[in-house]
Specification:
The structure is a single chain. This protein has 274 residues and is mostly beta strands. The protein has a domain of 182 residues: Nucleic acid-binding proteins (OB fold (Dihydrolipoamide Acetyltransferase, E2P), Beta Barrel). The protein has a seven-stranded antiparallel sheet, with no helix packed on it. A four-stranded antiparallel sheet has the order 7-6-5-8, with no helix packed on it. Strands 1-2 form a two-stranded antiparallel ribbon. Strand 6 and strand 7 form a beta hairpin. The two termini are 31 Å apart.
Length: 274
């Protein structure tokens, strides 16, 4: 994977850095795995705006992703590596022996023609999905379930990965991308390898219009608002804005908002770094 810096033939392209798309093998998605995607524009069922800065953007179709990897002990061949407009990672189209096709989140290093399999008989190789009880300690993993059978919930975005640190009884200790160390049931599944498209973090949009293509509307700086609109608004001249906080007064930097009585606190071995 690589990135390309464009020649500054226009003001917008002067700073723009785009994905090289070296890993992508086709630009035509599998039609049977496409679904329509409705856009809310940030409005609820009454038409009232409940989420700001959402609206417009290019029309998309949803690619149905197999997050559960529940077709056990059946090998599937990787047919294509594709771009997905709904996520930062690339996706891979796999075809099972009897002809069924599914999309999976592509791990880094997955190649077309490679065979992937899930279940207890699978080897701990790139793209295979195993239970945490069967993965060797120290392995880099991604697309991790939090509840058995519910599908991958952790480490699904571009370049994300976790590491299996230890196992004791019915729990495995996993170091998550955030730096948090957490216990997860060994009956949960995970995919071997880091998620693809790690260069995603290097991309630079280059202009405001590209955010509009992605469905993101302009955002007003709180410091530029009036006191009635935001705690950081108001003041004579260019006032700094005071302590950084959200629109409803919650401090924005370093303030812990996680509930002290949250039931899953007992599974966290070490909190993420401040």
């Amino acid at each position: 994977m690589s990135v390309r810096k464009l020649k500054p033939v226009t003001p917008a392209q002067r700073f723009r850095v785009v994905n090289g798309f070296d890993a992508i093998t086709t630009d035509k998605p599998e039609k049977s795995l496409l679904e329509p995607k409705k856009r809310s524009g940030g409005r609820n069922n009454k038409g009232k705006m409940t989420a700001r800065h959402i609206g417009g953007g290019h029309k998309k179709r949803y690619r149905v992703i197999d997050f559960k990897r529940n077709k056990f002990d059946v090998a599937a061949e990787v047919k294509t590596i594709e771009y997905d407009p709904n996520r930062s990672a690339f996706i891979a189209l796999v075809e099972y022996k009897h002809g069924e096709k599914r999309y999976i989140v592509a791990p880094s290093g997955l190649q077309v023609g490679q065979s992937v399999v899930s279940g207890t008989k699978a080897a701990p190789e790139i793209g295979n999905a195993l239970f945490l009880s069967d993965i060797p300690l120290g392995t880099i993993i991604s697309c991790i379930e939090l509840s058995p059978g519910r599908g991958a919930a952790i480490a699904r975005s571009a370049g994300a990965f976790a590491q299996l640190m230890a196992r004791e009884g019915k729990f495995a200790t996993v170091k998550l991308p955030s730096g948090e160390t957490r216990m997860i049931l060994v009956t949960c599944m995970a995919t071997i390898g880091a998620v693809s498209n790690s260069d995603h973090q290097l991309l630079v949009s280059g202009k405001a219009g590209r955010s509009r293509w992605l469905g993101r509307r302009p955002r007003t700086r709180p410091v530029a608002m009036n006191p009635v609109d935001h705690p950081m608004g108001g003041g004579e001249g260019r006032a700094s804005g005071g302590h950084p906080r959200s629109r409803n007064g919650i401090p924005a930097k370093g303030f812990r908002t996680r509930s002290k009585t949250k039931s899953s606190n007992k599974f966290i071995v070490e909190r993420r770094k401040k």
